[in-house]
Every structure is written in C-alpha cells, then in structure tokens.
Input
Amino acid sequence: MSPVLLAEQILNGLQSGVMLFLMAAGLTLIFGVMGLVNLAHGSLFMVGAFAAAAVAGATGSFLLALVAALAAAAGAGAIVEVLVIRRLYARDHLDQVLATFALILIFSEGTRWLFGSFPLYLDIPPWLAGTVMLPGGIEYPAYRLALIAVGLVVAAGLWWLNARTRLGIQIRAGENDREMIAALGVDIGRLYTLVFAIGAALAGLAGALVGPIQSVQVGMGEPVLILAFVVIVIGGIGSIKGALVGGLLVGLTDTLGRLVLPELFALITDASGAATLGSAFASMAIYILMAGVLIWRPTGLFGARA
Amino acid sequence: MIREPYVNAALLAALLIVPGWAVWVDEPFTITLATRAVIFALAAVGLNIALGLGGLVSLGHAVFFGIGGYAMGVLASHAQSYTPLYDGAFTIEGTKSMPVIWLVAALASGLAAWLIGALSLRTSGVYFIMITLAFGQMAYFFAISWPAYGGEDGLSIYVRNGFPGLNTLDPIQFYGLCLGWLCLALWGYARLRRSPFGLALDAARQVPGRVRAVGLDPRRLQLVALVISGAVTGLAGALFADLNRFVSPSMLSWQMSGEIMVFVILGGVARLCGPVAGAVFYVLMEHWLGGISEYWQIYLGLVLLAVVLFGRGGLIGLICGRGRPDA
Output
C-alpha cells in the first residue's frame, strides 16, 4: 500500500463522510427539535438527486440543478410535513416508523412512475472536471475535493445558524421546551415546518451533489439513510457536532476498512481467503464501530446523558 | 363492536376453509398465496412478542427471518451435494429433514437475538430502533459479500425438505404444517401473555422503575422476550425459504424488517391475531393491487398512512374498538 493510495483513500473517506453529514444533520435536527424518527429522509435525498438530474438534463447548468434540488427537496419536505408529519409529533415512535415507511413507498413508486425504472445520469460540471495536483504528488478529482469543501462550508453555516441567529435560538429553545417558546409567541407550527424543510433541503443537496458520482435511481436513498442512522447513533442524537464527527468517522472507517482489512487478513490466511474475509468484514466495519461506541457510550459521543 | 375472540375465530376459520376450498376447485396458486400469508403471520407473531408485549420497536427482525432461511439453505444444500458441513474432529452432515432444520433455525436465530439484544438493549427508544436496523444491515451486507453460500445470488435447493409421514411437495400438506406452526405460536403467545413472565414483561414496558423496585431486571426480561421473538421469526424464515426453495440476502434486507413490522401494526399491536390479520391483508393487497397497477406500492403506502393516521389499533382495533387490548 503506497502512501499516495492511502492519502487518496483518506480523501475519499472525508468526501463520503461530509455527504453523510449533510444527511445526518437534517435527521438529527428533525429528531432533536420535533422528536420524530423520519425514515423518509432518504426519499428526500432521492428527490434532490432526481430534480437535479432533470434540470441539468433540460438546461445543462449544474448550478441551476443544485438550486432545483434544494427547492424540490425543501418543497416536498414542507408539503409532507403539513399533510402528514405534523400529525405524528404526539404519537409514539412506532407510529412514526410505520407512517414514514409508508411515505417511502409512496415517494419511491411515485418517482418510478414519473421517471421510469432506468437510472438517470448527472454529469460533473466541466469547470470541476479533471483532477487537481495536491502537495505530495497526489492527483485527486476536483469534483470530490469540491464536495468536501461544500460539506465543510455547510457545517460552518449550520453552526452559525444554530449559534448566532434568531432562528437558531428558537430551534434550540424548541429542543428544550416547546410549550414555553409557544407561550413566548413563537408560531411553533411554522417553526416545525421550517426546520423540517431545512432538513429536507440538506438531504436534497446531498442527493444532488452525490448524483454525478453514482447513478440517480429509485431506492438510492435508503442505503444512505441507514448509514445516516449509524452516524447519528455514533454522534449522539440531536447533536449537529456529533453528526459531523460521526459522519467523518463512518466515512473514514468504511473506505479505509475496505483498503486495510484485506491486507490485514493477508497476514494470517492465503490471498484469496484474505480478499473474501476482508471484503466481508469491511462491509460490516461501520456497524462494528457503532457497536463499540454504544458499549462505551450508550447515548453516542455527543448525546445528552440519559 | 364485535368481541375480539369472535374475530380471531373467524380469521382462523377462514385460514382453514379457503385452502380447503382451493383444493376442492383445484386452485394450487391460492394455496401458495395462503401459505405465504400464514408464514408471514408466523414471523409477525414472533415480532409481536417483542413489539407488543415487550414494547421493543425492533426494525431488524429480518435478521432472524433471514438466519432461519439460511439455516434451511445451508443444511439442505450440503445434503443435496453430499458434502459435510464440518469435517474435522467430528463430522456434521447437512440434512433434508424439516424438524432438524426447524430446530437449527430457531436456535441460530435465538442466539443471534441474544447477541443483538445484549448490545441493543443497553439503549432504548429511538436508539434501539436505529441500532436494530443497523445490525440488520450488517447481516445483510455480510450475506452479500460472503461467497460460500451464493453471496448476492442466494441459494436454491431442488426439492422441498421432508417431514416424516407427510408429502411436503403437495401444497396443501405443506400448508397444513405452516398453519400448525402458526396455531402453536398463537397458543404460545396467549399463554406467554398470561404467564408471570408475560405480566412482568408487560410491567417492564409500562413502568420499568417499579419493576426494578420489586427486584426484577427489566432488561433481562426484555432480552428473554427478544430471544423468544427472534426464534419464532427464525422458524418462519426456515418455512419461507422452504416454500420458495430459495434463500437470498433479500430475506435479510431492511425492507423485509419493515414489512414484518407493517404486518403487526396493520393488524393491531399486542393483539393475539393482529399479526395474522395484518399479514393476510398485506398478501391480499399485494396480490390484488399488483394485478391492477404496476405501481401498486403507492396504494399500499396510502392505505398504511390511513391506518396510522386515522385507524389507531390496526384492523382488529377497527373491528373491536380500543387502541390496545390492554390499554
């Protein structure tokens, strides 16, 4: 294993980590403020990717596609919140799981009906095509580097929104005591719709950004959703900082596990057995990481102590 | 409002009469459909022990369903290729005998439930949901990337496994076996609910603090419930794999977990026959709507939404009234 390959894989891990962060941040925000388990978050990821692919196909502009993805996911999120999700806040988690599972079916089949079963393709914009030469002689795709930058900018933006704005104060107050901020004259229904739309927009953004490096197809949201669950379980539910740290940990563990584990097994068994064992265990590495974190800290790294 | 025992009796009578009628008019497909519903119902009765009695929202029950399926697949594939399963200090042969397969399936999935439960029960609430989901994915990816037993393609066997004294290739005889298991599981569920263990478990769901105060450990009660629940669902998995003569990682997928949970909630959580009503309704919807539209899952989603938002207590709750039987 050369240092250049290792560095590239670390960058890949960071890139998938920040994309997971975008998904997990929305999920954890929605859970923190409204106490809602939202299985349909992956569907909003898919809505973003499809909106981006459709608009990019029609106009050829990647920036317009990103705007469309944000608008479509936020819009879909707001509509779903007003029609369905709103009625679930007072229910137990079981009802929330079933209702959002039903939403997944509706979103997935609706998208299949609109766009068909074949995957769509989203191209990397020409101004981000090609590679960048990094110090140390590492050649790395410019687009993936841009994804890392966008993810970090969004993380900073979320921190600013949460810590420095009036909306952030309301969100944090809503996490602690919803009756009290309603009594102080904040329209709690509108705040919830807004928070849900922000979470949805983050998922849609992640979908649109990931679109060019994987195919845009029905069902693309659910694997990411489950990874995002792992991220927020590791980071601690309700914590945006936890979502960022958890996202990076999961991204790095996943990519580095695929690189390192087969080599580790090669030390104890023959080459073909090592490849098999390595890939089998690499696909489980993040779940083993999660189990480890839970044994050590049952409420995640940054979760509130129970 | 009709009283619940009458609804249960009508439901079980229908499960006896409809396949009998199908034999009479020679409609083997109806029997296969009914077998599918009964096996799903068995898996859901298993989940209902954890979900209804224990209040454990497990979104990873496909693990147990899939392990049961693979127990059948692994044992039967070794038996049909005449290769021993393990050949070292002693030899373990594969088998085509259903009772042995059932035993292995129940033991293996019970053991998995114990392992997963011991870790997951350190947490509760929404963490528990997500962790069981994640363990489910772990098993799923392991099955996909482990090539010894078919990997992504799954494992198929040529002939359905045998049961002493019965011809399991005859659809109605195999259906009888599955229905027998379902009735046994329902009887067990009813007994469990009234047993001291069931009452303690119910109390642990409602007021864990007081259970602790009388000297019982809620987490141990829940762990035992999860193990029983996993073993029943694993048994259903072995039957399901035998029905299709095929097992693949899709039995371990999280959609499968979601579906098993849908059976329970659709029929009515913690109801004796809730899982049966839910599974039968689901299989009928799948069959009818699948014939009407290629996009039938949209309608399924809408029905599910309507049940959650407006029909609390599921189908049985709708007929018999009240959200939970014990509420």
